[in-house]
């Protein structure tokens, strides 16, 4: 006789963001364990700026795969403004607690395009925290997940993803290096601060 039980598994990105995931296992002494679906194959990072990353050492794709996303951001020379934003928001602990999320990280050129008033607002903790929560989706979004779909950010804003081939846009911002896998998140570098719905 076979019984199936289902138990929810909870994973948290922030204290206020819990995502239920369902997992099923089979129980029975007269049957073999159910087949487990193979994980998807590793995905190559894509985008016009990926080639500019170091071939090895800090800031390289290989090194980022073994470190938390916050460390990966800190090691990427084109993400100094994003790193500063995280510090202003005092978000180190929450970044360290994240797992299987996607972080959209505007590069330094993207922050330079903001108006003086916008940059001033991001210089204070409330503004920095609000933007960071808009840039995080509590899902591991692979390249195929970015084709003409919408996602709700941690803050509750809607992010529209469009594109095909190697040209993808998030809220109108181009993904200049996407699907960068870190130890606890997937990172996508953008050329603008995206527009939110």
How are the SSEs ordered, and which strands pair?
Blueprint: E1 3-14, E2 17-27, H1 61-64, H2 69-75, H3 80-88, H4 92-96, E3 101-106, H5 108-112, H6 116-122, H7 125-134, E4 136-137, E5 149-152, E6 158-164, E7 167-170, E8 173-181, E9 185-190
Parallel strand pairs: 3-9
Antiparallel strand pairs: 1-2, 3-4, 5-6, 6-7, 7-8, 8-9
Short description:
The protein has 197 residues and is α+β, with helices and mostly antiparallel strands. The chain has helices at residues 61-64, 69-75, 80-88, 92-96, 108-112, 116-122, 125-134; strands spanning 3-14, 17-27, 101-106, 136-137, 149-152, 158-164, 167-170, 173-181, 185-190.
The tally of beta strands, per DSSP, is: 9
Radius of gyration: 18 Å
What is the distance, rounded to the nearest whole angstrom, between the alpha carbons of the first and last residues? 51 Å
The helix count comes to 7
Overall average pLDDT = 84
Order of helices and strands: EEHHHHEHHHEEEEEE
Sheet with the most strands: spatial strand order: 4-3-9-8-7-6-5
User: What portion of residues is helical?
Assistant: 10-25%
Strand residue content? 25-35%
User: Structural class from helices and strands?
Assistant: alpha+beta
Low-confidence stretches: 1-31
Largest sheet: 7 strands, mixed
Can you tell me the overall shape? globular
């Amino acid at each position: 006789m076979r019984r199936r039980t289902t138990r929810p598994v909870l994973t948290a990105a922030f204290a206020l963001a819990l995502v239920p995931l369902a997992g099923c296992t089979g129980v029975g002494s007269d049957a073999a364990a159910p087949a487990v679906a193979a994980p998807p194959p590793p995905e190559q990072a894509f985008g016009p700026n990926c080639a500019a990353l170091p071939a090895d050492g800090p800031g390289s794709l290989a090194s980022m795969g073994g470190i938390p996303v916050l460390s990966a951001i800190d090691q990427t020379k084109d993400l100094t403004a994003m790193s500063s934003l995280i510090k202003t928001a005092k978000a180190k602990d929450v970044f360290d607690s994240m797992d299987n999320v996607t972080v959209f990280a505007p590069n330094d050129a993207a922050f330079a395009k903001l108006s003086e008033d916008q940059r001033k607002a991001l210089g204070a903790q409330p503004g920095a925290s609000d933007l960071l929560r808009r840039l995080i989706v509590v899902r591991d979004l692979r390249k195929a997940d970015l084709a003409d779909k919408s996602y709700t950010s941690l803050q509750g804003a809607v992010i529209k993803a469009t594109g095909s081939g190697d040209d993808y846009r998030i809220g109108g911002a181009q993904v200049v290096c996407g699907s960068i896998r870190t130890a606890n998140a997937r990172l996508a570098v953008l050329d603008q601060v995206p527009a939110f719905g």
